[in-house]
Amino acid sequence: MMIVMKETATPEEVEAVVAKIERAGALAHPIKGARLTVIGAIGDVEQDVNIESLGLEGQPGVDRVLPILKPYKLASAEIRHGERTVLDISGRKIGGEHFALIAGPCTVESREQTLQTARVVRDAGVTLLRGGAYKPRTSPYAFQGLGQEGLKLLAEAKAETGLPIVTELMDLRDIDDVLEVADVIQIGARNMANFPLLTEIGRSGAPALLKRGLSSTLDELLMAAEYILKEGNPNVMLCERGIRTFETDHRRVTLDIMAVPILKELSHLPVIVDPSHAAGRRDLVLPLSLAAAAAGADGIIVEVHPNPDEAVCDGPQALLADTFDEFAAAVQRTAEFAGKALSAV
Ligand code: PEP
Ligand code: MN
Q1: Which of ligand 1's atoms lies nearest the C-alpha of 130?
Q2: Is 255 a pocket residue for ligand 1 (Cβ < 6 Å)?
Q3: Nearest Cα residue to atom 6 of ligand 1
Q4: Under 8 Å between Cβ of 42 and 230
Q5: How far is the CA of 132 from the centre of ligand 2 (A)?
Q6: CA distance 242 to 257
Q7: Mean pLDDT, each 10-residue run in order, the chain (345 residues)
């Protein structure tokens, strides 16, 4: 159920409703909007019935009590009454009118490659730096990432450029190490349905970039987000990165651009697009990035390399560091055309 407080409700009145919901054995999630506070009361089906019988309608400060119709309660657009969630990553806003350009290497390979790429993307005005220290590879014989050594290099890149870091967490045993460096934890496509991982990231409170699984529906993506939100962590971005379809020629997977307006209709969470992993080809990354920005995405995440021919991972899709500033300018123009300002400090 969703308890919509009056615009005039006091913090004490909100507290009293929260306490009553918790006493009934359900979880209470107060969500403070610009105008009013909505409290999500989440339990199992029987507990929802209990909440209805708590008599909250008549309680001071309460305007209405409504059911949340979607199975993803906290991720649903309903619970924010049309307001968008705006994340604040060390002063850089993502969502609403703020467009995030996230760029960097697929994989942290060496000090020089990481720092060189970080400087190039910083100079082009990006919002966040991406880079993987732990890599989900199809082959167990492929390079698996530099691990802790990679995290140290990301910390160095952050110290030098001031850019917040997005990096992937694959294994819960690494969560403390990753949290020391990451401003945003990436949950890779292959881990979208790793529910214990999602729950722990929820508990950590760290901002999360949740990628859509290769064969996952949008509802499954939203339910995965719900695992994080349910733990009291509201800092979630959704990421469309391409899905498997019958078309296997000429591209890696199929970028589902329709996911952008649909996710924004269903959810208040920011929606990011990763054209690099969908395309697998450098030449497709610009048109797909522009399409994402034009479709209303809240940001894109792309791979960049100073020398893609020598990249240990995903070289063919990496944008060239040399011309990255032109790419960034074109994306910024399209985001502005769609009514958003590039988020940087
Ligand atoms: C990545 O971003 O480096 C990555 C492996 O992405 P995905 O999980 O979408 O394949
Ligand atoms: Mn990659």
Answers
A1: 2
A2: no
A3: 188
A4: yes
A5: 8
A6: 9
A7: 95 96 91 92 67 88 93 95 95 98 98 98 98 96 97 98 98 98 98 98 98 98 97 97 96 97 98 98 98 98 98 97 98 98 90
